[in-house]
Design goal:
Blueprint (H helix, E strand, L loop, with lengths): L1 H22 L11 H33 L5 H21 L19 H30 L5 H28 L4 H10 L3 H15 L4 H25 L5 H21 L1
Helix pairs in contact: 1-4, 1-5, 1-6, 1-7, 2-3, 2-5, 2-8, 2-9, 3-8, 4-5, 4-7, 4-8, 5-6, 5-9
C-alpha cells in the first residue's frame, strides 16, 4: 500500500504541477487566450479524457471483472452510471461559472465571479485525479513495476492537457481584475483536488479491492460527463468549429497512442 500511495501521489502530483505551470502563463501574457486557442485546448482536453476513459479505465474494468469470474459489462456499466450521477449532483450542489459564460450554474450564491470560475475548473479536476490514482492502484494490483507504464501514460496524458487548463483559469481571473500573483495561485490551487482525490481513491481501493472494476468505471463515467456536458460544447462555443473538432481528435489520438505504446 505504501508504494501504491507513493506512485499515486507522484502521478497526481505531476498533473497538479502541469496545472501550476500552465497557470504561471499569467505572468507572461497580458491578455486572455484567444477564442481559437481556447477551442483547441478545450477540444484537446475532451479528446484526452475520452480516450483515457476507454483505454485506461473501462477496458481494464471489464478485464478485471472477467478475471474475477464476474460478468464484465455489469460493473463497467454500473460504475459508469454512478460516476455520471456523482458529477450531476456536484454540478447542481456547487455554484460555478465556466470561462466565457455570463450566468453561473448551481444554486444562487453571493460569491464573486472569480471564485465561481475557479470552482468550475476544480469540478473538472476531481475525476481526473480519481482516474490517475486508480490507474496506479490497478498497476500495483496487477504486478507492480511491470504494469506501471500504463499508469504513467495516463498521468502523462492528463498532465499534457492540464497545462492549457491552468492557463484557462488564471488568465480569465486576471481579466476579471485579480492580481497576477493571486490569479496564478487560484489557477494552481484549482488542480490541488487531483492529488487529494487520487490518494483517497487509492486508500479506498486498497481496502475494498473487489470494487476496483466499479471504481475504474466510476471515474470513466465522471470524466465522460465532463466531456459531454462542458468541454465539447465549450470547444465549439455555440457554433460549428473545425478547430474544436480537430482538438478533440488530436487529444484522443495522443492519449490512445500513449496508452497503447506505453501500456
Amino acid at each position: 500500500m505504501g508504494q501504491t500511495l507513493f506512485w499515486a501521489a507522484g502521478g497526481t502530483g505531476f498533473t497538479f504541477l502541469m496545472t501550476t505551470v500552465g497557470a504561471a502563463l499569467v505572468f507572461f501574457f497580458r491578455r486572455s487566450v484567444s477564442l481559437r486557442a481556447q477551442r483547441v485546448f478545450l477540444g484537446f482536453a475532451a479528446g484526452v479524457m475520452t480516450a483515457a476513459s476507454v483505454w485506461s479505465l473501462l477496458i481494464p474494468a471489464i478485464e478485471q471483472a472477467e478475471d474475477a469470474g464476474q460478468v464484465g459489462w455489469i460493473p463497467a456499466a454500473g460504475g459508469f452510471v454512478l460516476g455520471a450521477a456523482f458529477l450531476i449532483v456536484l454540478d447542481n450542489l456547487l455554484p460555478h461559472l465556466h470561462p466565457g459564460s455570463r450566468d453561473p450554474e448551481g444554486p444562487p450564491t453571493p460569491w464573486k465571479r472569480t471564485t465561481l470560475l475557479m470552482f468550475a475548473v476544480t469540478l473538472h479536476n476531481i475525476p481526473e485525479g480519481m482516474a490517475v490514482g486508480l490507474s496506479f492502484a490497478l498497476a500495483a494490483q496487477e504486478g507492480g513495476e511491470a504494469a506501471l507504464p500504463a499508469a504513467l501514460a495516463l498521468a502523462l496524458g492528463m498532465g499534457i492537457q492540464n497545462f492549457p487548463e491552468g492557463a484557462a483559469i488564471s488568465l480569465p481571473l486576471r481579466q476579471e481584475g485579480m492580481s497576477r500573483t493571486k490569479a496564478f495561485l487560484c489557477g494552481s490551487l484549482s488542480g490541488v483536488v487531483e492529488p487529494i482525490f487520487g490518494v483517497l481513491v487509492v486508500l479506498l481501493a486498497g481496502s475494498v479491492a473487489p470494487l476496483m472494476p466499479w471504481m475504474l468505471s466510476f471515474a470513466a463515467g465522471a470524466m465522460v460527463y465532463v466531456v459531454v456536458e462542458e468541454l465539447i460544447p465549450e470547444a465549439h462555443l455555440g457554433e460549428h468549429s473545425h478547430v474544436g473538432t480537430l482538438g478533440v481528435m488530436a487529444g484522443f489520438l495522443v492519449m490512445m497512442v500513449l496508452d497503447v505504446a506505453l501500456g
